[in-house]
Each structure stands twice: as C-alpha cells, then as structure tokens.
Amino acid sequence: MAHFLLEIAINKFCNNANLDLSDLDGQRINLKVSKTPFETNFIFLNNRVHVLATDGSSLDAEIIIEPKVVKSLFNKTPAKELLKKDEIKITGNVKSAQLLLEVIEQVDFDVEEIMANIFGDMPSQAMIKAGNLLKENIDFENLSFEKLKQDFARFVVSPTKDSSANS
Amino acid sequence: MDKTTHFGYKEVPTKDKEKLVKGVFDSVASNYDLMNDVMSFGIHRLWKQYAIDIANVKKGDAILDLASGTGDLIKLYHKKIGNSGRIVSSDINEAMLDEGKRNLINSGVLGIEFVQANAEKLPFEDNSFDLVSIAFGLRNVTDKDKALSEMCRVLKPGGILIVLEFSKTTNPVLEKIYDAYSFNLIPKFGSWFAGDEDSYQYLAESIRKHPDQETLKQMIIDAGFDMCEYQNLTGGVVAIHKGIKV
To answer: What is the pTM of this model?
Structure first.
C-alpha cells in the first residue's frame, strides 16, 4: 500500500511542478532520509517515477536528505539553497547526479501548495498546522531516529510550547 | 482431441469459450452498471479510481482500455487528460461496446476511439500506448498469456499495464463470507435485478478460476514486462497488478 501511495504522491508532485523528467529516463535512484529508516529506490521511465523494491539492484545515483530539510521546507528555503547547504546530497555517477541536480533545482518546494495538490486544501491545512507545531517542538538540527521518537512523544503529550499557559 | 479450457467451473473446448463469454456479456450488457453497483455495494468505483491513480496518467498520453465495457475507466481517464491525448475504448463484445459508447456520449465524454477487438490479437502497432488497462476483463479472456503479450507489444517502452481483477482473499474468515456471498447471493441478485441467474453464476465461478496474485504477477513478467508489482484491495477480493515495460 505504502509503495503505491508514495508513487502516486511523487508523481502528483512532479506533475504539479511541471517537471520534465525525460532526460532522467531509465535512471535508477536511491532516496534516503539520513538518521531514519526511510529508504526507497525508484526508476524514471516515460516521464514518470516508479517506486521499486530496495533489492540491491544497481543504481545510478543516491539522494540523501538530512532530516532538517523538513524545517527548511516549512521556511520555504529554495532547493538551490538546500543543495548548497548539503541538506540534500546527491552522489553517484556524474551524469545521473548532474541530471538529478538540474531537476531538483527547478523545484519550488512550497510545502503548503504541494500538500494541497496531493491531499486537497482542508487536510493540507491541518497537516501544515501540525507541521508548524512539530517544527517548533522538534530539534531538527540534532536529529536521530531515537531522538525523533522522544521528541514526537513529547510533542504528543504537550503539542505547543506554551500549552500549559493556554490550559 | 480438442484442447479445453474453463468456462466458470465447466471444462469447454477452447474454441468455444469466446462464444460462451460473448453470450454472457450480450445478456448482461444493458444491466451491467446497475449490477456492478449492486454486487459490490458501489465499491467497484473506488477500486477503479485507485487503479487510475496508480496509472499516473499524464496529459498527452495514449491510453488503451481493454474489456472497456460500459466505459467507467474511460470516463476517469477523460477527466484526467481531456482530449489532450488519445483514449481508445476496446471490447471484444459489440453489445458492451455499444453500451459504453451510449454511456460516454450521454455523460458528455467525447473524442474517444471505439475499437471492437480481441485482446489476444490487438489491431494496434507496436509501441503505440503509454498505458494499457484491463479492469475485470482478463479472467474472461481465453488465452491470457497471449493477451498479456499483446498488451506488452502495443505499449511504448516505459509504458504501464494496469490489471484490475478479482483475486484471492488473504483472510480465511473473509474467504468464507465472500464464498457464501458469491455463490448464493450474486446469482440471486442477477435473477432479481437482471433476470439472468446463469450469467452471474458464471461470473462468480470465473473469479475462482482466475489465477491468484502471485501467479498473475509471474504471467505478466513472462509476457515480457520487466517489472510487476501488485496490491490487494478489500482483503484481496480484488488486486491491482502494475506491469512496466522498460
């Protein structure tokens, strides 16, 4: 289920951003969020993205995303900036990495708009609200999976910094 | 001796199956949409919508929908791409194709090509489509391997095959309920709503004779697709297989 949903979301995002993926045709890419278990492989074909099983088959490039990208995205940091600050790292064979770089640089990461396009206006507003609260409560700079779990538990128990003052 | 194949639970000469299936669909064509809603409690619309989402249709795509029937998928494709690409509605059965044509025109869906064709011998050139779909139709095809090979042939490199079909339930409790429902209620619904119990008995039987998820996945790979993934819906009552021709 998650496999197909992820694929639908990525393709909707690429469509809405009007990304031309044709130069990436046939490229197999690994996407990882560092310090978390999230990892997936995908292939570009016919201007679409297909999520693949992570079966160790040969890959052309790897994208590593630092967890603090989440915070940067909510702050509407441009993709070029994220690449410059190494919050998004691309490695692999030179040609594939360069092609990927060119595509990612075209992207306008407006989280609110992306979510609205994928999920619809109302759910995306709720998610943005939750995201903003998470942003305030979670230390993205020094994130590890264990710490993420602790921060999330803290967030669930006390969702705003001044919740005691409001209650 | 004649080769045989299944027609529901009956073994029939292979050469006769096409005619027998035609008989079923000639009989059910006019009540097909109503019966789908009755039998699935309307859930078939959600399954179809999800299949379209998985297909990742894009403006300008060339799309072939096989066993297109009353045109449910065509409506959804048209909603996504309008007249920006090419949408072909194909069915072996003339009565079903006519029903689809009427439905689509009544719904204001224009610019669709209608082609009466056997999925085992598609009248299209190699590498012509970005997407080929077949929803609740593959189990009625006599030579499924041949049909899948044809689907692969007409797809462009990078093209996608979507097969939406009844499958094997993954939960033994659900399986018992589903069996009781399929063999007792569905034929009765056929009799009450469409005046045709036998055709709906066949539909229930044909679901059980259809290959399970893993077998169909292997058949898709064997037909020439480079990748295939599937997802069960409603506990495996239905599965969506997605094949990719690299």
So the answer is: 0.79
